[in-house]
């Protein structure tokens, strides 16, 4: 992982070229967050601000939003909602800025994931403290921590399945798909010449990637077969069939990501029933996660058998 350099600005990059794929983009993102992020990205490109700097700035706005959710006054919560919306706009902008300036990096991708973790850690802590002030017992932290752990799994698998889908439709250049074996080799090769912070980040990312792989054993078998038998270049007919079955799952990855959970979070704040946020995360979003993983594993198992039968 190397420090970012500011590349030449490419002001003629279109809005559409800053999107990953229509298959993986939510309508709220396409019509709201991405246009705002595009404007911010263009401004940052002109000012020479790097994607990682935008990501770090978003952390402060997201954490600030969480702090404001601690207070029962609705007007403070509304300010927190606006801060969280702006933080997510910055989160959109950092990726778009990376594509505008061709300044993509694994470190940037990792920081982008950490940003959301900081936001929601702040939010969970604030809501637990708020509930305790309202008379809830200390076991409310069980709900908060359980929902937080669930959020990690939900985000990890949604991100992984999106990158799998992007890999199949765009290849290496259009995806950020990594595997733990390659990451371990890269880490072993570079750890002696890399500072403590970057080594710490690299180890954390390897653990994150292993989590994704451990939750998708049949998908890992399919990827291994594709690599050993087809050098990751499976027949076009099989590729199209896989994408057709996989595409509906992209809607589920969107549901368990930012927009749905935040819409309901805002609803619970408006009616001052914040405990429902944890219940929603634990029961509803985890149910969707389990279905999504089981469905993806079934698809992967079927295609493993199909590809194994090809001479």
Automatic annotation (TrEMBL):
It comes from Pedobacter antarcticus 4BY. It comes from the Bacteria. One of its GO terms (cellular component) is membrane. The keyword Secreted does not apply. This is CDP-alcohol phosphatidyltransferase. Gene3D superfamilies: 1.20.120.1760. Pfam families: CDP-OH_P_transf. Keywords: Membrane, Transferase, Transmembrane, Transmembrane helix. GO terms for biological process: phospholipid biosynthetic process. The chain crosses the membrane at residues 40-68, 74-90, 110-132, 138-161, 249-269, 275-293. One of its GO terms (molecular function) is phosphotransferase activity, for other substituted phosphate groups. InterPro entries: CDP-OH_P_trans (IPR000462), CDP-OH_PTrfase_TM_dom (IPR043130).
């Amino acid at each position: 992982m190397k420090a970012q350099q500011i590349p030449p600005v490419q002001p003629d990059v279109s809005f559409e070229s800053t999107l990953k794929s229509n298959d993986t983009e939510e309508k709220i993102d396409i019509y709201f967050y991405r246009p705002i992020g595009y404007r911010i990205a263009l401004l940052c490109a002109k000012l020479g601000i790097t994607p990682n700097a935008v990501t770090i700035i978003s952390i402060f706005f997201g954490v600030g939003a969480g702090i404001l959710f601690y207070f029962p006054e609705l007007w403070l919560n509304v300010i927190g909602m606006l801060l969280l919306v702006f933080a997510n706009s910055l989160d959109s902008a950092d990726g778009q800025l990376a594509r505008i300036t061709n300044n993509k990096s694994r470190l940037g991708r990792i920081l982008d994931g950490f940003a959301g973790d900081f936001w929601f850690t702040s939010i969970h802590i604030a809501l637990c403290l708020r509930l305790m002030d309202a008379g809830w017992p200390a076991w409310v932290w069980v709900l908060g921590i359980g929902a937080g752990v669930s959020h990690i799994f939900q985000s990890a698998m949604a991100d992984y399945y999106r990158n799998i889908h992007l890999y199949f439709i765009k290849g290496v250049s259009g995806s950020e798909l990594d595997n733990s074996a390659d990451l371990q080799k890269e880490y072993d090769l570079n750890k002696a010449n890399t500072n403590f912070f970057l080594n710490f980040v690299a180890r954390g990312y390897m653990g994150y990637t292993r989590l994704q792989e451990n939750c998708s054993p049949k998908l890992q078998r399919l990827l291994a077969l594709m690599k050993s038998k087809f050098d990751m270049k499976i027949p076009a007919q099989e590729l199209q069939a896989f994408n057709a079955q996989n595409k509906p799952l992209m809607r589920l990855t969107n549901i368990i990501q930012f927009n749905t959970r935040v819409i309901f979070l805002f609803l619970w704040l408006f009616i001052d029933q914040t405990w429902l946020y944890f219940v929603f995360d634990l029961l509803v979003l985890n149910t969707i996660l389990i279905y999504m993983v089981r469905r993806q594993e079934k698809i992967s198992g079927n295609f493993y058998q199909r590809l194994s039968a090809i001479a």
